[in-house]
Amino acid sequence: MNNLPGERVLPMLLITVFDMPEEQIARIKKITGMPVYVDPNLKKQDAPLDKIEILITYGLENINADLLDRMPALKWIQVFQTGVEHIPLSEVHDRGILLTNVKGLYGKPMSEYVMSIVLYITRDIPRFVRNQKLHRYEREELVDEVNGKTMGIFGTGMIGQEVAKKAKAFDMKVLGFNTSGRPVPSFDAVYTWDSKEEMLQQCDFIVLLLPETEQTRNFISDKELKLMKNDAYLINIGRGPLVDENALICSLTKGEIRGAALDVFDIEPLPENSPLWDVDNILITPHLSGKSVRFFGRCIDIFESNFYAYQKEKEMKFQVDPDRGY
Q: How many CB atoms neighbour CB 285 within 10 A?
């Protein structure tokens, strides 16, 4: 429908986040006072894309040059996750679109996830679950303790530091890995690329939190798995491609390491026919390590602060530099 001469067309806000609760959508409407259009995963044919000024997204949808061409009024993309690798950064830069993500949300839930796995495995909870089903009251086999174990955290950023703090609270030794080897609070020692193998050989629990880059793809493959302790346990909450999944399956089948908890995968959602599902000592979770019932509230707190800054043309929190990619 054509607008009447002089009629003001209200800019709109588009939410493509597929699982946002209605009360959180209502909160965004109240904050912005803008008409809000919800189109999960950009599947609706009648979406008023030409009127969208602000886009709230996970950054996982098919955001490309063609879509941006259909959104000439778009001025700001707010990504409700840290990674922006699926956003066409050069297109965003060339069109002068602001791009912000969220940080500082994941430390607490992801560190709780890690420690829940560590305790679950060390205290041998799966055995008690099995015994309960069998009505078996068995006390002969004792469980291990977490204190004194060594955790290796590959990635010493905000999330890694939160994991390290919780591990230290359980009297674990904590080793870290980053690109410079710089010391980081809560870590007993920090390693870098030239000492990666030395670090792997010491760890009882290995936590992956690295970003996906050319250098980090297959960061854990056949060579690294053979270096680990026979009772080492791998936890990947970073990016799926950090782990060579076929090499991991082979290693676990041979009993080279104790097991693995995987929250991220090469292909997501994890296909029903993936062989990972059928490996007994792999624990699979559906990319939820950082997402609790508090997730959206924390995201919208950041969005609210950014929206007021956006209105006043002031600097926004967690603005992404498209040239750097973060």
A: 13
